[in-house]
Amino acid sequence: xxxxxxxxxxxxxxxxxxxxxxxxxxxxxxxxxxxxxxxxxxxxxxxxxxxxxxxxxxxxxxxxxxxxxxxxxxxxxxxxxxxxxxxxxxxxxxxxxxxxxxxxxxxxxxxxxxxxxxxxxxxxxxxxxxxxxxxxxxxxxxxxxxxxxxxxxxxxxxxxxxxxxxxxxxx
Length: 171
What we know:
By secondary structure, this protein is α+β, with helices and mostly antiparallel strands. The protein contains four helices and nine strands, in the order ααββββααβββββ.
């Protein structure tokens, strides 16, 4: 089996450790006591600029959503090439882009959406796996990713190809 899923409880515990807790996006109540019941956390808010950079107003992170440097196609690469791509990216006149951590990448998942599970402010999102910079503690040859089909994630061998969305800390 290529992908190992991780539990939402583990992810929630990790997200509570640093930064703001965002609403999951789930608004439907499937069972009393779920996220749809409480809808806790900070509201999601995004701003897109003219050159394809999306600012997350809740976290302050800025996200790549322009791939004109790659012929308009979302970058697809193995993990090493994904890190190098982000490190060398210049977008919106800035060159301090990097591959996001798992925690950062998971902040984009909107549980109220699927295929893709991300706010529609992002117009260049495939419902596929995206690399994070987070290497698995279980082995240095694998890293965590996030699938934007439904928002789940897992680990993949770093030699596999996944999509790339770069991030910067913003202002």
